Amino acid sequence: MRDADSLTDALALLAERDPRLARALRDVGPPEPRVREAGFGTLLRVIVDQQVSTAAGAAIWAKVTTAYGAAPDPAAIAAATDEALTACGLSKPKRRYAVALAREVAEGRLDVDGLAALPDDDVRRALLPLPGIGPWTVDIYLMFALGRPDVWPVGDLALQAACAGLFELPKRPDAATLEVLGEGWRPHRSAASLLLWRWYGGVLKNRTGAGIPMTESGKKT
């Protein structure tokens, strides 16, 4: 969702269709669109954000951009030493994932800028073979960088927690269950995701007092 009008329209349709989403919208109001620039830097940022809190991801990314600039060059990351990336706060697996992605782009095997012209499934086929890039990473990139309207990141722990609260489930649903729960929200599942993240942060987290880190489902090592 790349603009406020499209998001507003999608949320209105979802609220008409599902009273639970209507309640969430009343509770917290409409979320803002989240837009990131498509390209290598954003894909690298999503890797940085895997399995850490929002604050921790932002702190690590600040170190990366201090060392490599606001738009890190793939060739520079590909040539970075282990020590340099460790100093940025990247874990051993993430150092490997970052370098592998950077090499794919720098050496021309992955046309990351060309992903914007591809259907969602083709974007998945291009990215999922890479180390450290699983369904969650691709979903986040599709939603925030490419602005795709019907993305549903079923591996996201905060979405799972939000749906558990909204549907009054006895426990947090797994990815397969979340896939089923979101079927009725097609083709506006990106808008549903944004609303549920906002509801989780504004209502559910205040009830539980605990945050949930960003995640990567199906991550390959």
From TrEMBL:
Q: What Pfam families does the record tag this protein with?
A: HhH-GPD
The superkingdom of the source organism is Bacteria
Q: What are this entry's molecular-function GO terms?
A: alkylated DNA binding; DNA-3-methyladenine glycosylase activity; DNA-7-methylguanine glycosylase activity
Matching SMART domains: ENDO3c
Q: Which UniProt keywords apply?
A: DNA damage, DNA repair
Catalytic activity field: Hydrolysis of alkylated DNA, releasing 3-methyladenine, 3-methylguanine, 7-methylguanine and 7-methyladenine
Q: Which GO terms describe its biological process?
A: base-excision repair, AP site formation; DNA alkylation repair
Supply one GO CC term from the record. Answer: protein-DNA complex
Residues in HhH-GPD domain copies: 50-203
Reported EC number(s) for this entry are 3.2.2.21
Task: List the Gene3D superfamilies hit by this protein, alphabetically.
Answer: 1.10.1670.40, Hypothetical protein, domain 2
Which protein is depicted? DNA-3-methyladenine glycosylase II
Species = Caenispirillum bisanense
Query: Lineage of the native species?
Result: Bacteria, Pseudomonadati, Pseudomonadota, Alphaproteobacteria, Rhodospirillales
